[in-house]
Each structure stands twice: as structure tokens, then as C-alpha cells.
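[Automated response] Your request has been received and processed.

Submitted sequence:
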Amino acid sequence: MKQILLTATALLTISLTACNGQSVKPETEISNKDKVVALLKSIETGAQEPAAYINPNKYIQHNLGVADGLAGFGALLSQIPANSAKVNTIRAFQDGDYVFTQTDYNFFGPKIGFDIFKFEDGLIVEHWDNLQETPASLNPSGRSMVDGTTEIKDIAKTEENKKLVANFVDDILVKGDMSKLGGYFNGDNYLQHNPQIADGLSGLGSALEHMASQNIFMKFNTVHKVLGQGNFVLTISEGTFADQPTSFYDLFRVENGKIAEHWDVMETIIPESEWKNTNGKF
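Generated structure:
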């Protein structure tokens, strides 16, 4: 407990100093996206300076296993054994006041995660995430959960692409209107990074049929956020998987007006009795 308090105090001191402009570069010298990448990397390096990018007076935490505020963030860091964490942010995007990332983690075991940070006046004020254990093997098409292109392009089409993906999730995943499925894809040309599913609509269909044969069903009930930058769009949804409350984070790459590639992370939502904050998952 003493170590947790010391860590939290150090983080708070750094952030307060930063707010007074005494120890960090002016905000114009670093983008919000770079701030997030540095903050995530500090989990590995132990660097305290990136904590200055968190608003010390307002940090709302939606990871249900972490307490609110800088104290909660400090407590999380203090629980990680020294020199054990690895953090490799594969993709980072910015949509207005939001930065969202896809990261290959190793703390308390290997994990793939999506993180979302909200900024106000150059400081982080809110955080959401979804984490899933890294599978031991590649998916049926030989893909990992994070490989594939990272190039962000078609910035002018951001809103168009967000609308396309939002409609796809609503039509297919929420409403289950499979008659519209083909219109969202270029034939069977669809790259898949879900650990259990092969490429193409044929791979998706086979996986869904297999799950149904095992009485395992996936249901999307509510879409909470749609964020995007250029040809990449992330949706954050709530539903169930195998009858368990589940948070779905799905990243789509759009090409020529069609969905071309997909990455995702699913996380079971822990019972409310186990929550360490009262902000909710979404």
C-alpha cells in the first residue's frame, strides 16, 4: 500500500508541475496521439513524465478493474513486477478529441488491447479499453490479431467511412439482416484477424455455423461509439457472447467504399460487485 501511495503521489506531482508549465514541452510540440503512445509505453519503461499528459483533477476510468483518477493509474503500475511489462502500440488514430490505439501488451501475460483516450485542453480526461489474451497460434488464414497494414489514408473520407461501418454494424451485427451482408464487401475479398475466423465472407459464415452447432451465439445489442481516421474505423459495442455480458471493440479498414479488413478484441464484462470504479464499461 505504501508503494501504491508513493507512485500515485509521484504521478500527481508530475502532472501538477506540468500544468504549471514547468517540466514538459509546450503542447504544440507534441500531438495528442504521441502523448498517448508515450503514456502507454511508460507502462513498460516506468517513465513518470508521460503522466503529465493526464489531467490530475479529472481522469475518468472505464477499465472496471482499475480505480478512478491518477491514484488508480498509479496503483496499476505499482502492481506490475519491475522490468516485466512490454508495450508495442501497433496502430494509433485521432478523431477530434479522441485518440484510439491498438497495442500488443505483455503484463500479467500477453494481451491484445484497444485503448481510447479523451482529451480536453491537451490533457487526458477519460479512458476506455478492451483487453483479450493473445492466442497461442495464428488464425485459420495465418494471421495474428495485430498484423496487416498500418497506413492511414483517405482522410477526406473519414466521415463517409464511419457511416459505412456504422451502418454495417447496425444492419448485420445488431439487427441481423444478413440480406444486406454482400453489399458491404468486395466479393469474398476480406482479410480477417479474429483468432478463430478465416478470411472472406466464407470464413465468417463457416465460423458462425460452427458456433451455432455448439450453441454458442454472439449478439450485439448497443453501439456506444464509432471513431475513425481515414480508412480505419473503430466501433465499441455492448452485447453477449455465449450468454456472457461482453464488450466488443471492432476495427475495420475500408477500401474503395467496402470493408476490406477486420481486427477485434472481445472482453467479458465483470460483475458489478467486482468493479473498482462506478463509471461503467462504456
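Summary generated for your ticket: The chain has two domains: 2-134, 155-268. The two ends are 29 Å apart (CA to CA).
If you did not submit this request, please reply to this message.
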